[in-house]
Amino acid sequence: MDFSWTPEQVELYDRAFAFARTQLPETSKPTNQVLPRDSWRRCGEFGFLGLSVPTAHGGLGLDTLTTARVMEALGRGCVDTGLVFSVGAHLFACVMPLLEGGDEAQKARYLPRLCSGEWVGANAISEPEAGSDVFALKTRAVRDGDGYVLDGGKSYVTNGPSADVFLVYAATQPAHGYMGLSAFLVEKDTPGLTVGRAFEKMGLSTSPIAPIYLEGCRVPESARLGPEGQGAALFKRSMQWERACLFAAYVGVMERVLEQTVDFARTRKQFKKALAKNQAISHRLADMKQRLEASRLLLYQACWKMDRGQEAAMEVSLAKLAISEAAIQCGLDAIQIHGGMGYVTETGIERVLRDAIPSAIFSGTSEIQRDIIANQLGL
Predict the structure, then answer these.
(1) What is the pTM of this model?
(2) Is 242 one of the catalytic residues?
(3) One domain, residues 214 and 126
(4) 2 belongs to a structural domain
(5) Which of 134, 188, 371, 374 has CA atoms 20 to 30 A from the CA of 29?
(6) Which one of 72, 228, 242, 350 is the catalytic residue?
(7) In this structure, are 261 and 298 located in the same domain?
């Protein structure tokens, strides 16, 4: 397993990092209501919204490992982690299922717009009674002539208030369970689709999230993504993408925070010496570095296996679990080392923790990841 980077990969990482740091500034007034469209379009201009999409459809055509590496650069360079999260949710939970399960007409209509930043995509699967048990859906899609009628409600739809197209999962054959789910592309102006009021959240404040409601929402058969009954397989595959490549952004965040905290510990003096000269502080920084590098290697291993078409369920879950829990601890450590300066909002340190906490919940909770790992161990 060789993780040395080619000159092209190094150049792409450097460009992505520089672009994120200079062209994607923190939103001055974070809002849960809508995405900052100017920043979104800039993400599209660079290629962040279509990293793993073939160039023929408007993307950069990157493999999984390179995609993760560029997401890492985005997370490191852009202090607006909410925007970074929205980019990842758009690409890995909406665009990639469309790429892998859509027909040519669907790809031609949606992918160029989604990759360029003209449109925003959203995944709609979670429901009030179908969170971790994602396949216990009550939303129904009933055949009606040459189309379907969708009825139900979805919770926690990332990008929902700004989305131009929703990837909606619904039961077409409820009695068939896992094999009875199908996926549909529903555009925002479709009659019967309503976006609810955006939720206020403790973190990721620039990533809007809201419920959506489907009441007699009629879509043509051409809106179905893949064959009937393939929705669960599409979703499972999208979660592999999301748990790997979206979480690469948190690796980048941790690297940025570690760099910032090391600099602070070197320059901040207490009792006539730099904080970093206290073993309690230097050891905490060493632990931050160890968790960062362990998370990074688990991530690269998972992406390496995905690129080779190998089964990577355990590796992806190991990486997701390690990164999310390391990101939360990174936020706690940074606050502790910065002291009072870390607790007040002006410095932005406490925001790191608020943005990290949901990483152990979305894309499958830490408990779900441990269940997957245990299952892979034969338990």
Answers:
(1) 0.94
(2) yes
(3) yes
(4) no
(5) 188
(6) 242
(7) yes
